[in-house]
Automatic annotation (TrEMBL):
GO terms for molecular function: oxidoreductase activity. InterPro entries: FAD-bd_FR_type (IPR017927), Riboflavin_synthase-like_b-brl (IPR017938), SIP_FAD-bd (IPR013113), SIP_fam (IPR039374). This is Siderophore-interacting protein. Residues 19-142 form the FAD-binding FR-type domain. It comes from the Bacteria. Gene3D superfamilies: Translation factors (2.40.30.10).
């Protein structure tokens, strides 16, 4: 592990931020591969969204019917209160978040019968969707000279942000 110019070892830290529920709009979709769609969500409720860690994830909620908001979780301090029965939801890794444009990119695997997959393929642009999270997580500071990045999307996000920032990037794959 590296030591900074000030002689201090960088430390990973548990970041705590409020888990929020927000309604974002489907801005665009693109085909990443024949079996993966990248959806871009955005809108004014992105303010306060946090995205800093390798395994950053959010829950996309899929009320049935879409206009039924009776079971959407409610904000309870820095947590969410979930009503039962739970609204159908799926966890997805945040591919990219841009606080300047207010855009969140999420990659969704296309497959038969998946509620998220069906939404990613069929939802009209401009449709609103509920997003819960992301939850708190451990942030690894940029001062680390080499980092094991377990989520491939985070690797691409880091390299796209500034490919010169890291002298070495190690990729760990888990099976």
């Amino acid at each position: 592990m590296g030591i900074s110019d000030a002689g201090v070892r960088p430390k990973a830290q548990l970041e705590r931020w409020s888990v929020r529920i927000r309604q974002l709009v489907l801005l665009r979709r693109e085909c990443v591969t024949p079996k993966m769609i990248r959806v871009t969500l955005g809108g004014p409720e992105h303010v306060g969204f946090e995205s800093h860690i390798a395994d950053e994830h959010v829950k996309l909620l899929f009320p049935d019917p879409p206009e039924d908001h009776t079971r959407i979780p409610t904000q309870n301090g820095d947590r969410l209160s979930w009503l039962k029965p739970l609204v159908p939801s799926r966890d997805y890794t945040v591919h990219r978040y841009d606080s300047n444009t207010g855009e969140v990119d999420i990659d969704i695997v296309v497959h038969e019968g998946g509620v998220g997959s069906t939404w990613a393929v069929e939802a009209p642009l401009g449709e609103a969707n509920w997003v819960a999270g992301p939850p708190r997580g451990i942030r690894i500071p940029d001062a680390f000279p080499g980092r094991c990045i377990l989520a491939m999307r985070q690797l691409f996000r880091q390299l796209r942000a500034d490919e010169k920032r890291f002298q070495r990037t190690y990729v760990g794959l888990c099976w």
